[in-house]
């Protein structure tokens, strides 16, 4: 009986600690940024600590093949960057399973999110010229598209305000929507229209992309080709690759329970360095690069 009571007490403590940890990643607030066809879309906002001067902002888009997914995929990343002094946002956007939409609608929503943040920069206390688009997989594709795809804007918005970010960070993003990449059947007949590899031009914002060399969903070749084409067009584009890892490797233990934080730490450390080099963060990363 005594042993059972001790085990129950230990279990209660662990549940309590787990709930505290999970609560730590909850956004400070959720703000409506778009209503379309009766659907309301929100930004899950993490406010920086001790915020005085306008800060940089980053908008994350979750992955899920433009069909499924949830903003909580980037709660852990948002919490970390907010602790470092940025306004961090994990954005909702329309997805096929819930809204019956296409990847083209996703790109439009991504642009709407970036535009909304820039339009409301004063009330968010952010610098409108330091807005980063980011995301994983299909969400990474959306982030890249906000920077290089023309059109696909919502005509009901103030189009005088740019929807283009000032920098982009992708976590195994979709680079090619033709049969050589991922998602060609989802954009059938329009395979190159929102395919980043086929829309590269000069004067794009700086980009940092992470990719696993063993990725079977988005071929590593796509990441290499995109990087080469970007650099050939005189754009700044860096690729950080990881051996023996596949798709979605960057997720931390919060989103993929039991996985550990090894690759979360590695990718966020490099993310921090990239943002610091741009002048969007100050000081050194506050996490260790090689801790599991």
What are the key terms here?
8 strands, 19% strand, alpha/beta, globular, 292 residues
* Run of helices and strands: HEEEHEHHHEHEEHEH
Instruction: From the 3D structure, determine the CATH topology.
Output: Rossmann fold
Strand percent estimate: 15-25%
Task: Give the CATH H-level superfamily.
Answer: Alpha/Beta hydrolase fold, catalytic domain
Q: Spans of 5+ residues with little confidence (pLDDT < 50)?
A: 1-23
Number of domains: 1
Rg result: 19 Å
Query: How much helix is in the residues?
Result: 25-40%
Largest sheet: 8 strands, mixed
Outline, from the CA principal axes? globular
**Number of alpha- plus pi-helical segments:** 8
Spatial separation of the terminal alpha carbons: 37 Å
Class inferred from helices and paired strands: alpha/beta
Which architecture name does CATH use? 3-Layer(aba) Sandwich
What's the mean pLDDT score? 92
What report would you give on this structure?
This protein has 292 residues and is of the alpha/beta class. The protein has a single domain, classed as Rossmann fold (3-Layer(aba) Sandwich), CATH 3.40.50.1820. The chain is 33% helix and 19% strand. The protein has 8 helices and 8 strands. The chain has an 8-stranded mixed β-sheet, sandwiched between helices. The protein is globular. Residues 1-23 have low confidence and may be disordered.
